[in-house]
Design goal:
The chain has about 350 residues and is α/β, with parallel strands linked by helices. The protein contains ten helices and 15 strands. About 50% of the residues are buried.
């Protein structure tokens, strides 16, 4: 048996641990393991993979990033191309990917990635590729998976940053807005905002109004506190608006951002308080993974190899009620998990008097 490991999309804390677990579990069974460099796009280069052996994965569990490289432009169904007239576009090169993997003697692929990567994996599976998916994203938005690898670390980093910003907000009597990642799901904003006792938490699942935000700021001041902490998910929207977008490049999803600056401007115009915005950005992806993320990643990687050994292909490894199990890739593809508005975390936020913008 020869397997390939691929890390698609952006990086996330815990990727190396998953790579190590899958590699070690496969080597224990006498299999050969290769790692695709920088996503499926590497298959169109003269150095498409690296050999993964015991030495290659030694001591990487605690390292952030991915030794295989990340690729957010590696969708083989939409590979960037320059047309004859000089314009940029995309083309479907998925058949070449499958052909190249067969040429390399690969029997199965462990695809580690987010919702986009799982969608790609499902489409490749429909074309005959044997694949097992591992859910990776700090956004925690993979359908039917309680927690993805990378999420816990991202929340811890965001919470620590918000804790630090509390002190400067209090010192200067400011309204501080912290924009966190999460794209179209508010998991990071909600969890870090709650943990760091933010006054206002804005998430994509609950469109907000500036009237609600301003009212909460005034209420906080009326009760004697001179500073206000706001945590905003990058994908949060005004009730009558759309996502704040920085731009988009061929082969990539739209780049969200700009909400924190918008809020800063609006608050300065409609209150007598000074406001400042902070965008945490890629800090949330970087650094050493937490103990929980390491353990989750190791469990996911090992289970992926067990699924291959069982011949249980075209499945995704998920955590449900702290147990590792497998679900069909087609059940996940094209869907993503948002914060449930009737969940206990939202109810707790309301009980604690948090403003959610509605």
């Amino acid at each position: 048996m020869k397997i390939a490991i691929n890390t698609g999309g952006g990086d996330a804390p815990g990727l190396n641990a998953a790579i190590r677990a899958a590699t070690k579990a496969a080597l224990k069974r006498g299999w050969e393991v290769i790692g695709l460099k920088n996503g499926y796009g590497s298959l169109f280069t003269d150095k498409p993979f690296v050999q993964l052996d015991h030495d290659a994965v030694q001591g990487i569990t605690m390292l952030g990033g991915t030794i295989l490289g990340a690729a957010n432009r590696g969708n083989p169904f939409e590979m960037p191309v320059t047309n004859e007239d000089g314009t940029r576009g995309t083309e479907d090169r998925s058949d070449e990917v499958i052909s190249k993997l067969k040429e390399l003697g690969v029997d199965a692929v462990v695809a580690i990635g987010g919702d986009g990567s799982m969608h790609i994996a499902n489409k490749l599976a429909q074309k005959g590729m044997k694949v097992v998916g591992v859910p990776k994203t700090i956004d925690n938005d993979i359908w039917d998976c309680d927690m993805t690898l990378g999420f816990d670390t991202a929340c811890s980093i965001a919470t620590d940053a918000i804790d630090r910003i509390h002190t400067t907000a209090e010192s200067h009597q400011r309204v501080m807005i912290v924009e966190v990642m999460g794209r179209y799901a508010g998991w990071i904003a909600l969890h870090s905002g709650m943990a760091a006792t933010a006054d206002i938490i804005l998430i994509p699942e609950i469109p907000f109004t500036m009237e609600s935000v301003i009212k909460k700021i005034n209420d906080v001041h009326r009760h004697g506190r001179e500073y206000v902490m706001i945590v905003a998910a990058e994908g949060a929207t005004l009730k009558e608006g759309d996502h704040f977008v920085k731009g988009k490049q061929e082969g990539q999803a739209e780049r969200l951002g700009g909400l924190a600056q918008f809020l800063e401007k609006e608050i300065m115009e409609h209150t007598d308080k000074e406001a400042r915005s902070v965008v945490l950005g890629h800090q949330q992806r970087g650094g050493r993974p937490s103990a929980l993320d390491r353990l989750i990643s190791l469990r996911f990687g090992s289970e992926a190899v067990r699924a291959i050994e069982d011949g249980d292909f075209n499945k995704m490894i998920v955590m449900q009620k702290n147990e590792i199990t497998r679900i069909p890739l087609e059940q996940v593809a094209g869907r993503f998990k948002t914060v449930p508005l009737d969940g206990d975390t939202i109810r707790t936020a309301r009980d604690l008097g948090k403003c959610l913008g509605d």
